[in-house]
Amino acid sequence: MQKRKSLFFLALLVVMFIPRVQAQKITLADVVSKGTFRPKTVEGLRSMKDGLHYTTLEKGGTEIVKYSYKTGEKVATVLSVADLKIDSLKNITDYEFSSDESRVLLMTDKHKIYRRSFTAEYYVYNFTTKEVTPLSTKGCQQLATFSPNGERVAFVRDNNLFVKSLRFGTERQVTFDGKRNHIINGAPDWVYEEEFEFNKAFAWSPDSKKVAFMKFNEDAVPTYSFPMYKGEDPAHMKNRLYPHDYTYKYPKAGEPNSTVEVYVYDIKSRTSIDVDLGTDTDQYIPRIRWIPNASELAVFRENRLQNKLDVLFANPFSGDTRLVYTEKNDRYIETDFLDNLKFLPDNKHFVITSEQDGYNHLYLYDFSGIKVKRLTDGDYDVTKFYGYDPDRKLFYYQAAAESPLRREVYAVSLDKKKKYKLSEQEGTNDAVFSSGFKYYINYFTNVKTPMYVTLHDYRGKLIRVLEDNAALKQKMADYQIPQKEFFTFKNSEGVELNGWMIKPLNFNPNQKYPVVMTQYSGPNSQEVLDKFSVDWYSYLAQDGYVVACVDPRGTGARGEDFRKCTYMQLGKLESDDQVDAAKYLGSLPYTDKNNIAIWGWSYGGFMSALSLEKGAGIFKAAIAVAPVTNWRFYDSIYTERYMRTPEQNPDGYDENSPLNHAAEIKGKLLLVHGSADDNVHLQNSMEFAEEMVQAGVQFQMMIYNNRNHSIYGGNTRMHLYTMFTDFLNNNLKK
């Protein structure tokens, strides 16, 4: 017995004197450049024609792998780049199968133009002959797309539309007037691409006999130029002595837009007919889309104020159009209407999302424009429409029904007697359905859970876990990571706002901590969402800051009135709410009200600058990255949607412009911009800087050479976030 006691105390002493492994600290490189806490996901997902299998892009884009929906297990490697033995094809960026899956279109060597546009090299692989051939040898292409029968590929090159016959290997040029900064065929201009959120402006008819395309005439659109220097990563050696001016068409608020025409090209006759779009040319054509039986082409037509949108059906042989549906709104129509409108396979009905009752809901209409039924009900927003399953007569959609902070996946029957909640876990859910809607893959995350990807049948039954990020969870166990908490408070007008907060590690409620506020605040945006992230905010909290975010009025998933109350006065209510949020945070017993900073990027940069001005004495410091400083400088589609034109609403443009309140700045400001920002032009920061200089306001400013709106490349991001961190450390007392 005595011997056992001795052994016990000896073991206890050994345990007591073993050095304890301390939790690792998050480094700035972890969250900025290394991607240490970046979750894995399932990428390049394509449902196959049979609806029983899907493919993914794996091993760094070198393999296309086929899986079974029924089991979730790998069936085969469909294609391996190594087997193709082509030096110029080292990996696949994206891919598309032909309708019979006998061929696959492979994209490689992708080069970005703007946010969604790019050029690339495409190859066609034939699974029957095992041959791989370049789509074209006459220059890089854009937007290559199989015809529905798989016999041809349409693509854009140098602003012209082409059709390649795979059977004969011939390349036919459809348009000949394409010219940079003049005419674009088959692809959108800059402002359409950015604000109507698409990059392909042509569509094959379902019977493969025709190609509808849009023609943009940019002649009347003013140009904007910025210098491109030599730079590094990448280096432009031709600019090493003399900078080169990059010039492109950019319509600012109130300025002329491109005029847009729609044509239908007939493959057999090699002729095009133009579609009747009405007499008004100062309008938008944000989408074209064929109805399922190819008998008519749907053309979306929207007025310049974006509060009236028509759906026209065009005869593809004559170009004549008839009005099928009109959506009107007292303020504006959100862009999600465009992609949520879907035609049903019966060629008699379509589904839209509309705010007719103050919330975004699903409605069923027939082709005569008569409302058949409202499909969803309640004081919540439907945020995405996935589609309709004709076999089970179910409509699938995503909604923020339980909380604006979360997203769920649902199915509802036509008679609304059956409604299923398919997502079981509380957080942010999104689904990708198989062809035929027999299966779906769910992408789930919340503040405590990295991306969790699961395979389900159409009723929601779990079949298999595809990605659980177990390795990331294990890695996170080695770190002390501060947790995100949600909160609400009421602003000075009694409106309840949602927020999240990250408290410092080893939080002491009796200590006073400096506060860093982050936000974006733009219309229908959301930063306060139940989703996972370990990022710069985690790093700051680890370093002794309280980090908080508040979604102000004007943000999403809280109904139309909340979302659109900022109409005609962008910045006013949002900045009021950020000032109120700072006051609320400063009132907490564990925060230092004399050491509060606010920062943001793009719309968030606009908000940081304006809040610093309006919150003089409340904010000690602000960081404004790529800010809009007067909406007169920004593009026509986005700005006029929320503000109308400067001529119609001059006070709305000027009263909340940071340019006009520069003298009111009391705190420290760091102003940052990329010199090659094609979206929010450097002009915004330069004019703002001049106003501060003339008002005698001292500030810090950093211009990143040749960087666009995202400000990245080489060591840029590490430099950027090191500068942010140093600025906060130097100006807020910890």
UniProtKB/TrEMBL annotation:
Peptidase S9 prolyl oligopeptidase catalytic domain sequence ranges: 537-733
Keywords in alphabetical order: Glycoprotein, Hydrolase, Protease, Signal
Keyword Nuclease: no
N-terminal signal peptide: 1-23
A Gene Ontology BP annotation from the UniProt entry: proteolysis
Pfam families attached to this UniProt entry: DPPIV_N, Peptidase_S9
Domain Dipeptidylpeptidase IV N-terminal per the UniProt entry, residue ranges: 98-451
UniProt xrefs under InterPro entries: AB_hydrolase_fold, Pept_S9_AS, Peptidase_S9_cat, Peptidase_S9B_N, Serine_Prot_S9B/DPPIV
GO molecular function: dipeptidyl-peptidase activity; serine-type endopeptidase activity
Name of the protein this chain belongs to: Peptidase S9
Species of origin: Prolixibacter bellariivorans
